[in-house]
Design goal:
Layout: E1 5-9, H1 15-22, H2 29-34, E2 38-43, E3 46-55, E4 62-69, H3 78-92, E5 96-98, H4 106-114
C-alpha cells in the first residue's frame, strides 16, 4: 500500500461515511460491520472504497470477496489493492477466496483478474424469438 493508506475492518464509526460514499451498493452495512465482513480502505480521511468477505454457508473454508470503489478514485488501482488485501486476509485465516461479477461487468472482471483471480466461467445469455404460427 501507498503512504497514508489504511485497509482495515470497518467499525460502527465508519458507517456514515460508508453510506455517503457507497449508497445502496449493498444492504445492511451495520450488520456486516458487526459480523466483521466489511472492510474500509482510506487514504488519510478519504474513503477510497469498501471490501466485503462473506463466508460460505455451503462450503467450509470458502468466502466470497468483493469490493466497491469510490467513483472519484476509479481506474487508479484502488479496486485491485482491495482485492489483494482481501485475498491476504483470507489466506491468513486459511480461507479460500472466490469472487465474481455480472458477465457484462468488464471493469470488475479486469480488476479481479489484475489482482490474480482467475475466470472459470462466463455466462452467455441468449434469447430466441419463436415465430408466431400463421393462421
Amino acid at each position: 500500500m501507498r503512504e497514508n493508506e489504511e485497509f482495515r475492518l470497518a467499525t460502527q464509526t465508519d458507517l456514515v461515511t460508508i453510506q455517503q460514499v457507497c449508497g445502496d451498493f449493498m444492504s445492511d452495512y451495520e450488520h456486516r460491520v458487526e459480523r466483521e465482513e466489511l472492510f474500509v480502505f482510506y487514504s488519510k480521511t478519504d474513503l477510497l472504497g469498501i471490501g466485503l468477505v462473506e463466508r460460505s454457508n455451503m462450503f467450509e473454508g470458502v468466502a466470497s470477496i468483493g469490493m466497491f470503489t469510490n467513483e472519484a478514485h476509479r481506474k487508479q488501482g484502488v479496486g485491485k489493492m482491495m482485492i489483494l488485501q482481501l485475498r491476504k486476509w483470507c489466506s491468513e485465516l486459511g480461507i479460500s477466496p472466490v469472487a465474481g461479477c455480472w458477465y457484462y461487468n468488464d471493469p470488475s472482471k479486469r480488476t479481479l483478474e489484475s489482482a490474480g483471480m482467475v475466470t472459470k466461467t462466463r455466462l452467455l445469455h441468449v434469447e430466441v424469438n419463436q415465430p408466431k404460427p400463421s393462421a
